[in-house]
Amino acid sequence: MSADSTKKTLMVALGVCLVCSVLVSSATVALSDRQEENKKLDKLTNILAAGDLLKGSTDVQKTYEENIQAKLIDVKTGEILNEKQYTKDLNPETFDTKKMTSDPKFTELIPSEIDIAGIKKLPKHMVIYEVMKDKVVDKFIFPIYGKGLWSTLWGFVALDTDLRTIKGFTFYEHGETPGLGGEVDNPKWKAQWKGKKAFDENGDIAISVIKGTVDQSNPKAEYQIDGLSGSTLTSRGVSNLVRFWLGENGYGPFMAKVKEGQHE
Ligand SMILES: Cc1cc2nc3c(=O)[nH]c(=O)nc-3n(C[C@H](O)[C@H](O)[C@H](O)COP(=O)(O)O)c2cc1C
Known about the structure:
The protein is 32% helix and 21% strand. The protein is an alpha+beta fold.
């Protein structure tokens, strides 16, 4: 067989393909644990960011452990589960949000007329985070998620203990277009949420992402966030998912119990 025969060329190409595929598969398997760890760390980093605890070169794990208490709640009743009720899946420290929000065993279907976040299934349980200061709760951090234009956006909204004032807002995962819907990650846009009121004086959900720029002289400005330009659909999705999770079908029952002093 001559060195430049077709058969030899094909054999060399096949050999190179085989070696490369073995290398890529081994790398994927070898790095999967580290990828999982990094994902967990990224989630913790975003919890700290929402709780305004991310300062300079913060040791994420240590800061989380020193400042945050994770609580597992029954979404419908707003009850906090106690340790005796924990199982392999239902445990605030190991709670796998993606699994628990898609598994039919741990979710129920939402009637489409109330599913403004476009999530289709309501998880029976969620983990919420309490930011502690001098042994008392200083803020609540609530996980939020829902449909944008192209993807499900996963993030957190932090509320003051008045359960009305927004203290932080961030997404840790989404697939919206960079420069358009992806501007949900723009620090300037996220900073706008701080200090806004999620509810009006009557306790009705009022926060929304509007189309265009907020007119600061409008009395409703304290409930409004600028729309992302050229990205009305992502903006609307974000508005709807926040309103869903802070509403009566999301964390409403839990917040009602906090206000009644039942979670002290
Ligand atoms: C390639 C491409 C990517 C887009 N990505 C987004 C996006 O991530 N979020 C979004 O709301 N709109 C996106 N749009 C625009 C939407 O299709 C739609 O035109 C827009 O949301 C309307 O917003 P406007 O009324 O502010 O112009 C994208 C459009 C194109 C062509």
